[in-house]
């Protein structure tokens, strides 16, 4: 069987997903073009050799519409001959892009692919794509007469089911910021972050290299004063079990970002004189209750571990996307996972969740964590809208 290997992985430092954020003045095409250009330049790769670019983006409207992956590669200077596609599996879009890329290589359909993702939540605000629209249709309304809910309510339901109280959620969230801040201070992200020139408040151009969403001074005590985000009288009546503990402090912030992973067959990497850093070991995708919505990382992880013939104790690092604090905490409870291995460089609560970019962002951080610690296996999983999840196991080479 052909091995699909990761040769390199890069990302932008996060920007706050609001006007005035570090990346908010940059068109999303240019965010993605920057990481695409960087990854071929870092590896002295002729972009004409890339068989396909597979990108993830959730809000494919406005500046992110009309196949942004293709637009971005043209902006990055790739030749006209390189094709691209943009996919949407909600928050797992670029993780799915990496799956498709690696699976295409394993099947022999590709030799070299770039999996990537982008989201500008400042320029394309959350909800823009669905504003005033019924995205469900009569079949869904009939199947779920009480109605589906937003992800914040799902996070409340998960917290209630797994008995995760406010103190636990806030302590975990503060730890995410502290771990990310420690990683920044130690230079742990230096090998994965590529520069992008942005204008600062004074109108001066400077390279953006540090995650803007990380707050090093965050404490659980400080987070405890924040008000719940999702309680309404309607939801309180419908879900009396909810504790109403989800706040901006234990949720991922709106974020701008882009990331990319260079994936090849092992033969292609050797032919080009490039050193593979990790190989794709196993994949899974799963669905779960769309009301609880954010629990699918649990069945996806069971599935990928079974396919890999591994146990959770065999895994040296876990990247479980921190859309909301209850998601990784419930996951860890189900697997009795070592908390020291869970998002050891901080997660999306600190580093941000630029929806379409997050899958390859997590993969980028995971590769570097394994290299830094000498770990062998890494597992990545993330919850996705409508109750889905991808899970990936990679093996450091």
From TrEMBL:
Q: Which residues form the Thiolase N-terminal domain?
A: 5-267
Please name the SUPFAM superfamilies in this protein's record.
Thiolase-like (SSF53901)
Output the InterPro entries linked to this UniProt entry. Thiolase, Thiolase-like, Thiolase_C, Thiolase_N
**Record key words, sorted:** Acyltransferase, Transferase
- KW Transferase (keyword) present: yes
Q: Outline the extent of the Thiolase C-terminal domain.
A: 275-396
The name under which this protein is listed is Thiolase family protein
